[in-house]
Amino acid sequence: MLTPLDVLSVETWILVISAIVLFRFYIHKKWQFFKSRSIPYEPPTLLGLGSLVSFIKNPDGIFTRDLEFKKKYGPIFGIYSWLSPVLIIGDSEILKQIFIKEFSTFPDRQNQFLKVNGKEMNTSLLSTTGDQWKRIRSTLTPTFSSSKLKAMMGIIEQCSDKTVESLKMISDTKGGRFDAKETFGRLSLDVICSAAFSANVHSQEGNETPKIIQMAKKAFSISFASPVMLLLFMFPWLETVLSKFDWSVFPRDMLTYFSGLTESLIEKRKSSELKQRIDLMQLMLNVNVSEEDVKNGATKGMTLNEIIGNSMIMILAGYETTGNAMLFLAYNLATHKDVQEKVQQEIEETIKEYGALTYDGINNMKYLTMCINESLRLYTPVARNARIADKDITINGLNIPKGTLIHVPVYGMCHDVEYWDEPFEFKPERMEDMNKIDPMLYMPFGAGPRNCIGMRFALMEIKMGFCKLLQKFDLDVCEDTPSAPLKMLFRNSIQAKDDIFLKVVPRCNK
Ligand code: HEM
């Protein structure tokens, strides 16, 4: 019979056992982070690789897990992503410090997955940190000022008119039943491309799904459940290695398509009369600086690669989140007819008061705003937000060392019965007085200086879209519309699991 000593020598066995003991000791030490700070935590296990495996295996579990954890551990607790601690904070006072007062200590969202988005998108606002982020953010911020948004109103109105036209055709020929995910996705892409880049991408034309929509969908279908993702979560340094080969979590054909599209938009712009347009693309081109200028410390302006990367992120961020927000609002209104009627009444009163759908009129629509806010709470487009500590800090007695990753359970906080009565019900009335809503417990667009740069653009687009739609149609459910609450998927945004078909009924038929 074979004995252990026949396989390896005594010295080798001593070495192997010592290595295992040392490794176990190292892990044990790493997993003392929360215990040593008396912070409750989900006990990590070796084969669960901390708490990572359950997340990778079932990302959709995030919707229930954050609520269960809060019940078990309270608003501040920890989990381990393999050896790295992730501090989950749902405490309003501490979040206020992190997002606003101590922003200089928490300027970035995370330190992982920043360099594996393809060489162009690695330079986008979502991925950049430090001085590069500051320079790009301050360059892009003026694009979303009130005067610029006002100037974009007409374009957004035209795109919304196209949606109404295509719904009218569906109503005339197909009984009004339409795929709401597809319709609002096409609208949001048309709006962002037309308003920000003066580009007609034909996303609302034809029955076939246009290539641009197919490609945009690819960007949001990436799954966390892959071996490479697991390795990246476990060994963050791998990112630097993979980025050397320009490896990306996004499909290569999607990156090539969008970088080609933005490059061609830039080329067209350089040689055409569109130079007069004051849109996002022109603002970026007006402040185009060289790599050399950046190396020499330029504090404003963007390089050509940054212009391409940020154009891509605006198109993608504008498409998915806003399209989904409109889809869920349409669903909520179709399933709450009394609320829908009140919105329609408000639209009529606004048009009477302002003479048309003006920027000020739309912004002053209180009830529609309440419905949007409530819909964003119920189907929170970004389920978790994050910040990372840039230096050691203690907030309200909570010691947070440099490098600690903080996660904010945005979806969990929006569905916590401690803060919301019947949290899974659609009740716009609870959003009547936003001064009574804690902005840290309800942050669909994030908070502080690094919040969503496109927030006001998105809200204007949703309002205009629904004003146009509800002027002409009632929204209704069809036989196969799923019942509430909708089942959700957690990818790199939240998405409805099932197709959502709704029905438009022309209002003149009433
Ligand atoms: C309903 C629609 C939208 C929702 C719910 C949403 C939500 C968010 C959230 C939660 C963040 C993170 C903020 C933080 O860390 O505090 C974010 C960031 C961002 N969003 Fe949006 N967003 C929407 C629409 C848009 C649109 C239309 C655009 C582009 C025109 C856009 C562009 C961005 C960009 C570039 C960032 C990164 C900002 C930075 O790091 O400086 N978003 N968004």
From TrEMBL:
<keyword id="KW-0408">Iron</keyword>
<keyword id="KW-0560">Oxidoreductase</keyword>
<keyword id="KW-0812">Transmembrane</keyword>
<keyword id="KW-1133">Transmembrane helix</keyword>
<keyword id="KW-0349">Heme</keyword>
<dbReference type="InterPro" id="IPR002401">
    <property type="entry name" value="Cyt_P450_E_grp-I"/>
</dbReference>
<protein>
    <recommendedName>
        <fullName>Cytochrome P450</fullName>
    </recommendedName>
</protein>
<dbReference type="InterPro" id="IPR017972">
    <property type="entry name" value="Cyt_P450_CS"/>
</dbReference>
<dbReference type="InterPro" id="IPR050705">
    <property type="entry name" value="Cytochrome_P450_3A"/>
</dbReference>
<dbReference type="InterPro" id="IPR001128">
    <property type="entry name" value="Cyt_P450"/>
</dbReference>
<dbReference type="Pfam" id="PF00067">
    <property type="entry name" value="p450"/>
</dbReference>
<dbReference type="InterPro" id="IPR036396">
    <property type="entry name" value="Cyt_P450_sf"/>
</dbReference>
<keyword id="KW-0479">Metal-binding</keyword>
<comment type="similarity">
    <text>Belongs to the cytochrome P450 family.</text>
</comment>
<feature type="transmembrane region" description="Helical">
    <location>
        <begin position="12"/>
        <end position="27"/>
    </location>
</feature>
<feature type="transmembrane region" description="Helical">
    <location>
        <begin position="219"/>
        <end position="238"/>
    </location>
</feature>
<keyword id="KW-0472">Membrane</keyword>
<keyword id="KW-0503">Monooxygenase</keyword>
<comment type="function">
    <text>Cytochromes P450 are a group of heme-thiolate monooxygenases. They oxidize a variety of structurally unrelated compounds, including steroids, fatty acids, and xenobiotics.</text>
</comment>
